[in-house]
Amino acid sequence: MPEARGATLEVDNVTLAFGGLKVLRGVSFAAQAGSVTALIGPNGAGKTSMFNCISGFYRPSAGTVRLDGQDISRVKASSRAALGMARSFQNIALFRGMTVLDNIKLGRHAHLRTNLLQGLLHLGPAAREEEALRAEIERKIIDFLEIDHIRNKPVAMLSYGLQKRVELARALAMQPRILLLDEPVAGMNREETEDMARFILDVKDEWGVTILMVEHDMGLVMDISDHVAVLNFGAKIAEGRPEEVQNDPHVAEAYLGSGDPAALMRRLHAEESAA
């Protein structure tokens, strides 16, 4: 398996405003190296906006984002990838006409050493680098995610669950130190969700990668997270271990409109049973 060292992510007093509308209000939390941290909250809480600030698609109006102590708040998204940050998206962002293997290989572009001309002409260094890249992906990523049987198939032919797995593979090809997962099990059935949960934990345990995820599946969040931060209306309302967060009346109020943690847990269990 790859030798990776997870990075620590620190979000400090991040505010994001579009005109006079504040979508994030002084949010602070941290994802410790080698951990799974979940960012949760009701629809419209600001989770995706926070992900966009962390990954470089948005620039915070105030506050800082630090990776292993380095302020990256003004660093371009492409440069954050080179620093070891990878991201998956809520809506699958694969090239549907390309094969699984070719989609995964695209994840390594931030680390390739050959120049544009060599790549276009497929000159010696580019050809050797591509061959080495393919061998590494087949050995370390395709086998790891159990997708050898589909590696030469066009993405458009795959089920939704397998497409989500390919997107994870492409993110892993970026050699991340921190992996941002935006609703990794959205739209999946129970079996697919269990498989993805296993892969996420294996990425943390075997690759040493820090994982920050946005997810609405509270069963998954409570099962695999080391730390949970909760947003509501752009502000952080709770933070702590999963068992602490699920018993916080502010979290129950945000989700249910009442501060009854027991009612929140009954709802979550009912949703799990219906899945």
Give an overview of the whole structure.
This protein has helices at residues 47-55, 77-82, 100-105, 116-121, 124-142, 160-172, 190-207, 218-224, 242-246, 249-256, 261-274, and strands at 9-18, 21-31, 36-40, 62-67, 70-71, 85-87, 178-182, 210-214, 227-232, 235-240. By secondary structure, the protein is of the alpha/beta class. It has a domain at 9-84 and 176-274: P-loop containing nucleotide triphosphate hydrolases (Rossmann fold, 3-Layer(aba) Sandwich), CATH 3.40.50.300. Strands 6-7-8-3-9-10 form a six-stranded mixed sheet, with helices on both faces. A four-stranded antiparallel sheet has the order 2-1-4-5, covered by helices on one side. α7 (190-207) links the parallel β7 and β8. α10 (249-256) packs across α11. The protein is globular, with a radius of gyration of 19 Å.
Task: Summarize the structure in short.
The protein is α/β, with parallel strands linked by helices and 275 residues long. The chain is built from 11 helices and 10 strands.
